[in-house]
Design brief:
- The protein is an alpha+beta fold.
- About 50% of the residues lie in helices and about 20% in strands.
- It is built from eleven helices and 14 strands.
- The strands form three sheets. It has a seven-stranded antiparallel sheet, with helices on one face. It has a five-stranded antiparallel sheet with strand order 3-4-7-11-10, with no helix packed on it. The protein has a two-stranded antiparallel ribbon with strand order 13-14.
- A hairpin with a 3-residue loop joins strand 1 and strand 2.
- Helix 3 packs antiparallel against helix 4.
- It starts with a helix and ends with a helix.
- The C terminus is likely disordered.
- One of its GO terms (biological process) is cell surface receptor signaling pathway.
- Keywords: Disulfide bond, Membrane, Signal, Transmembrane, Transmembrane helix.
- It holds the Pfam family 7tm_2.
- It is found in: Membrane.
Length: about 500
């Protein structure tokens, strides 16, 4: 036999054997990963390095045909040979078998635009498109243990090419048999290592979600791993977090300015002997001013050092405790004036209220700083899509958080009972014509004064969660403004009718 012909034959056989060895090795790796996924998740993050190694082998594998496919129970891979010249887009579907009593997992599809190969040189012989379909929750695990639709993740990438900012998006289609819409399901992609502690997180940036009957269509401008993130009740989206933050900043700024104005007005123009009612109002406005100011500083200072953030969190916590304490003092004072009425003299009355309103919260905060300083620190406000979570300086301990809720709950319960008794007194004394409107104005003013709207925090569940959150944010961020308006109205009425000073002061 001719020596060159023999050499060519030997080379062809060697290359064929090498291709067979490569594909067998890759198939074994896919089978191994599938076996591990079927056995269980194990420690979070254990399977991600194995998937990364498989991606590299799929990108390097040699094969003769146009497409190489490996299909197992939890994972299916496709490696396609593409050429930049004449590429007009590609449609790819997957029908993964499910051995859990159902016939099959709903079909999924990916459509790649012609723009996908825009950065590939026309003279390059071929490019490889690697697609990996995964049916398991055991690889893409974030810190929030998020759930994705049917545990399906669809991934795609080009060999040695990073595809981003496509004008024509990649279309990823997920079919399902659930009731989904934009409120409980959004398209996301995986950000490896973005979640801290070695974990990644889901992000919706660059992806658009479209819902139709039985189908979720994701339009994304890049290649990576995609899924449909299920939003559980109690989660808020990134857009909702931004709008709530904006409302809070505007409301707290207005309340802080109004509180400061009334405090300065009182200090400059107050009478020589102002009554205890007015002094209690001013202490409450002072606490609200500090609370609003602390909240406005909390998020910017979250970017500062740990020590400064802990100090800010302690200050904000103390101001919140003081605000609730002074709202309780308002309720107690109202109880003495309108309910008990007789024998209401208390020695050093205002001093004792100050010890309760300022001293007790200060003692609590100082004790926490002395004995468990790490109770204060950075708190991440997580959103449904896991992207761009907000950070503020606040309580990091669940026990301290629950303790603060109990403290606030007891005060709100007492304040609500006092308000209900006052409403009953007003209804029973409504014998003069034309007093109904004044009575309702008094009740609304007392509702703000006693902080009853803070009780909305205890009704944040179910379908009312997001509306309640907006209502809570609007009402309580503007509480300082409402109290200032109410105080101004009462002050003007007292100026017009000096004879009613004593009765109005109690309101």
């Amino acid at each position: 036999m001719n020596a060159p012909l023999l050499s060519a034959l030997i080379l062809a056989l060697t290359m064929a054997a090498q291709r067979s060895h490569d594909t067998d090795e890759v198939e074994e790796d896919v089978a191994t990963l599938d076996s591990r996924l079927r056995e269980g998740c194990g420690t979070a993050g254990d399977n991600m390095p194995r998937l990364s190694a498989l991606e590299q082998k799929l990108a390097k594998v040699n094969f003769k045909q146009e497409i190489l496919t490996f299909s197992f129970t939890t994972i299916q891979t496709h490696v396609l040979k593409l050429r930049a010249q004449g590429f007009n887009g590609l449609n790819l579907t997957s029908q993964m078998a499910q051995n859990r009593g159902r016939s099959s997992i709903p079909q999924h599809a990916m459509r790649f635009p012609a723009e996908l190969m825009k950065d590939i040189q026309a003279g390059e012989v071929e490019q490889k498109l690697i697609c990996i379909y995964i049916h398991s929750p055991c690889i893409f695990q974030d810190a929030r243990n998020s759930s994705v639709l049917n545990d399906h993740i669809l991934g795609a990438f080009l060999r040695n090419v990073r595809v981003t900012n496509l004008r024509q998006p990649v279309e990823i289609q997920f079919q399902h048999d659930k009731v989904l819409d934009s409120s409980n399901a959004i398209c996301v992609f995986w950000l490896d290592g973005a979640g801290g502690k070695g974990l990644g997180s889901w992000s919706s940036e660059g992806c658009e979600t479209r819902h139709s009957q039985g189908t979720v269509l994701c339009l994304c401008n890049h290649l990576t791993y995609f899924a449909v993130l299920l939003i559980t009740p109690g989660d808020i989206s990134q857009a909702e977090l931004v709008s709530l933050t904006y409302i809070s900043i505007v409301g707290c700024s207005i309340s802080a300015a109004a509180s400061l104005f009334i405090l300065l007005f009182y200090c400059i123009f107050r009478r020589k002997k102002s009554d205890d009612t007015t002094k209690i109002h001013m202490n409450l406005l002072g606490a609200l001013f500090l609370l609003n100011s602390g909240f406005l500083l909390s998020e910017p200072l979250a970017l500062a050092s740990v020590g400064l953030c802990q100090a800010t969190a302690a200050f904000l916590h103390g101001c919140l405790l003081c605000t609730f304490a002074w709202m309780a003092a308002e309720a107690f004072h109202l109880y003495l004036l309108l309910i008990k009425v007789y024998n209401i003299y208390v020695r050093c009355y205002l001093l004792k209220l100050c010890l309760f309103g300022w001293g007790l919260p200060a003692l609590v905060v100082i004790s926490i700083l002395l004995f468990k300083k790490d109770t204060y620190g950075y708190l991440d406000i997580k959103v449904a899509d896991g992207y761009k979570n907000a950070t503020m300086c606040w309580l990091t301990s669940r026990a301290a958080h629950n303790g603060t809720l109990c403290y606030a709950g007891l005060i709100l319960l007492f304040n609500t009972l006092v308000l209900l008794i006052v409403v009953r007194i007003l209804r029973s004394s409504r014998r003069q014509t034309g007093t109904a409107r004044k009575d309702w104005a008094t009740v609304l003013g007392l509702t703000c004064l006693l902080g009853i709207t803070w009780g909305l925090a205890f009704f944040s569940f179910g379908v009312f969660f997001v509306p309640q959150l907006y209502l809570f944010t609007i009402l309580n961020s503007l509480q300082g403004l409402f109290i200032c308006l109410w105080y101004h109205a009462v002050h003007c009425r007292m100026e017009r009718d000096p004879a009613s000073t004593s009765s109005n002061a109690s309101k």
